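Quick one - inputs below.
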Amino acid sequence: MNKIRIGIIGAGYIGTVHAQVLGRDERVELAAVHDLVEERARRLALSSGATAVRSPEEVIEASDAVYVTTPNTKHTELAVACAEAGKHVFCEKPMATNLEDARLVLAAAERSKAVFQVGHNRRFAPVYSALRKMLTEEAVPHSAHVKMNRGELINPEWVGDPTVTGGFLYETTIHMFDMMRFLFGEVAQMTALGSSHEYPETDDFSVLLGFENELHATLCSSADASWLFPFERVEVFCHHRTISTREMEALVSSEGMEGKEVTLSTHQLAKEEKWGYLQEDRAFVDSILAQTPPAVTALDGYKSVQLVDACYRAVRTGERITF
Amino acid sequence: MNKIRIGIIGAGYIGTVHAQVLGRDERVELAAVHDLVEERARRLALSSGATAVRSPEEVIEASDAVYVTTPNTKHTELAVACAEAGKHVFCEKPMATNLEDARLVLAAAERSKAVFQVGHNRRFAPVYSALRKMLTEEAVPHSAHVKMNRGELINPEWVGDPTVTGGFLYETTIHMFDMMRFLFGEVAQMTALGSSHEYPETDDFSVLLGFENELHATLCSSADASWLFPFERVEVFCHHRTISTREMEALVSSEGMEGKEVTLSTHQLAKEEKWGYLQEDRAFVDSILAQTPPAVTALDGYKSVQLVDACYRAVRTGERITF
Amino acid sequence: MNKIRIGIIGAGYIGTVHAQVLGRDERVELAAVHDLVEERARRLALSSGATAVRSPEEVIEASDAVYVTTPNTKHTELAVACAEAGKHVFCEKPMATNLEDARLVLAAAERSKAVFQVGHNRRFAPVYSALRKMLTEEAVPHSAHVKMNRGELINPEWVGDPTVTGGFLYETTIHMFDMMRFLFGEVAQMTALGSSHEYPETDDFSVLLGFENELHATLCSSADASWLFPFERVEVFCHHRTISTREMEALVSSEGMEGKEVTLSTHQLAKEEKWGYLQEDRAFVDSILAQTPPAVTALDGYKSVQLVDACYRAVRTGERITF
Amino acid sequence: MNKIRIGIIGAGYIGTVHAQVLGRDERVELAAVHDLVEERARRLALSSGATAVRSPEEVIEASDAVYVTTPNTKHTELAVACAEAGKHVFCEKPMATNLEDARLVLAAAERSKAVFQVGHNRRFAPVYSALRKMLTEEAVPHSAHVKMNRGELINPEWVGDPTVTGGFLYETTIHMFDMMRFLFGEVAQMTALGSSHEYPETDDFSVLLGFENELHATLCSSADASWLFPFERVEVFCHHRTISTREMEALVSSEGMEGKEVTLSTHQLAKEEKWGYLQEDRAFVDSILAQTPPAVTALDGYKSVQLVDACYRAVRTGERITF
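Output:
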């Protein structure tokens, strides 16, 4: 069988991570890579065996499947173009940085017969996939307490620029909105308070969420805190059971009325596996080959954008948003 | 100078803790103790050198200062009686288990010229007093994430009986409402979701709070989780700084943009000091002797009841409560 | 049946702990207490319902069983006197502070028909009893790494006075020598290096031990380190398994080739139970009533003294000590 | 100025790590790479821009400086050849897998005028360099407790083959022998016990060490334990101070008589920097350009082999080895 020719648009950090993972997948051939900064495309081409090309269009033409790994605010246009060209698309999160664009991507993905997967890698991280399994097979969650903080919006420097990220929540916090859907189902209502401290945008959020299944949760996300480990944590409360994550490093489950804990540590895994990049890329190739729906659909991507959009709206209006 | 004669109404766990602390204070003489269960009064009297008496009235009569350490729902009547008798009062939290009763206690305390202190011990715990100091002297908090869970409402058995506790939030979670006022100032608004799982009352809460100073916070408190350490935690976010507690065992402060943490551990302290009982009892005696206002006033006690009451109301009505 | 009359010689910290535990045991009556400091005896008598008496002899006379809870260097004489009087004896560790005295106590205990138990409480602490169970039933240990440090020899002040303690190793480190016998069996050989830094005695030890069953272990114990938690830790290595304690707060077992850990936390227990005092006192009373051998025998007490003595000798001579 | 041409002999894991680091150093050009497995050389050549060549000799000829990153037992011959050719050499640890070979390498390095650096990367890891700084500038250590365990000798599969590794201690534990010299100075004496459990070699060690400066230490290293974090830990005891590492993830220092800890976390660093690979490669290039002695000399490499050799001898003979 022929190898799947994969192209990459956007040769920054995350594009390089995917290229490295894909480079070890025998079913794949890295075909073409483009970046607005030519030197970056050239370097990624060199190390991956792909060809550096001069435009996104050339990538699309040379490929069976395209990774859209540009800055956030460029995802929509490229994702739509790839889907409309009938290519399989791996679109990094966020699929879009506003609701209208998200609708465009969703529509294009739905019109296409090819695979369209969104890069919510955390679903594949062993810590989170094990957590999901526990909540599906062992324990019914009734509430949750989630946080995702940052030490700064300075490194890398574009991370503090909303014209690049689409806004603080679109950059990393969107993973937690997707994660809550992944773990707890659809959100029914949201109330939020926000404030602005260090950066020229709302950079600190406290959020209250109600889910369709009656679970309720609190979420906080501040851009200006510190890198105190763990800066990303999901705590879930079930009947006589607490399950808690420490970033993607450990999952701790404590069951019963005494102090017994079971910890799953991923300390020994390489980052690409610990963070789920390896698994999501394999799943994408699997879907293409088996012609099965992707593990994270365009609708999932749309709904995470919808939750971020609702959170901004909840802060702005002071209203309870219902879905 | 004569020793202050102290009486104790309620010879259960917390009454015994106070008696032990007071028994080592040279300025104090344990005068009388009463409990509905005579055997308990007798036992505490024996170990503390006090006299077991047959009624609360006898305790009041024999004492300069009275500790009200009965079950929660009995605090109001006794606290009012002690205050009206002109005695100094140390009233355990909650001061009352509904707003109307809290007003009665507050009014009685305000009419009295004696000291009236409420037992919000956590303010005196080294972990929390050090946290307060940091937030006052070193760093301005902008948001917070607070949790206080339990493994069950079974041990001790009365803890699951709302006719004794006044309701789950009145029993332990009220400490966190007081703690937030202590650390962040007055609450301006509150929204909450709640549910009932294991116990015949609302036993699981997710709460969103806005403060007068613009700080916002999330709080969760479930009666049915586990004893996964830490089950009580306050995380505060400041400019390039995160400060977090692990129950009353440790305070961790991480400042700057790198991974540096400073931990204050109270592991070596005896529980009575670690939890602030020692310090609150000394502060009460100090206030009596120096004729100064108590460290935790009847108004503080009232406001913590007010917040608990508002939280129940917010869950019931679905409305945002403003103060 | 009549209650067992228990007397206490030595009303300091540990005597008081035992009195409190015994005071809640229905099978026991606290009969008499003596201390060289009369005020201490009086206070313990008051809180325990015992009678303060003027001499150890009076305690022995008034009691069926005697707790020897004086400073270390006084244990031998009193333990021998109690045993020779035919009384049951609970002798705090160390049974003696030199080998010759230990032999005297052992001989007296062996001549007596009464129960003679030594206060190696750690054997009863849930963390250590669970560890023992694992090593007996689940996993064969092949090596171990043990440490027991202190932050200072200042609090309490007598702890730095070898005329009271018998020497640094006799005070707390002896628990670890006993613990290693409890967990790993008899020691076959020992080599050690020591030095003196802050205190007028050898206060820092590095020890290499070989056991009869071929297990080997390292032990370190410094009097001048810090109270960095955990200052007491036993790590045991088995086939694809590491088991580690954090003081008497937690037992962590990691089995298999991946990062899975199971933690048993004793955080919720009261100190007297967490440290095994409750259990050892009950076991002592059980032995008296059932006329069964004690859980920690005079021979165990003798062997722990023997190991401490050998350790001092190993440091002094530079020789390998064999047993 | 011309770039330094660097060649790599051995294109396995560690050769690839160095190639990636060197590939980002502007002062360097990757010239040639060789591996007995041609495909590996080809792949590394592709991603690094170097040329794959057919023999070590061709690498030496094409390079100003050579990295010897073959299996352990091949280091000696290649390191000697490179040094004799007058090339700068970066020789991975262990420099040799027996004392005689180590002498050959040391002699060759001493005869050469070029730089000869040994790959004891841990000296450059921020956790260990910060620890060294503390011990040099702030606190005098008096004893230490060191461990380095493994979960297995199965992954990668050659790690359990002494004909490849030179023996268990030569593979990873040698880092700890070097680390102790780095932190505490020269070893004066060593006693050790060892045993064999799962693998066809001595795979479990308990070691007692005395240093020239009177410090004493214990070390344990088992090949058959588990991956319980941290499996590598150095604990150092100073006057009222304990300093402890958790692998290369964190350095905790606790000073004073209370429970205060300061933690330096390297959680945010990329592995190549966290483990010191980045820094050691830069230091090597610095030394070449500045014509200064390397940070880790051939003599350092020799002494670490000497300590491993002594440890095996100590186990075999049962004797105390002196230096």
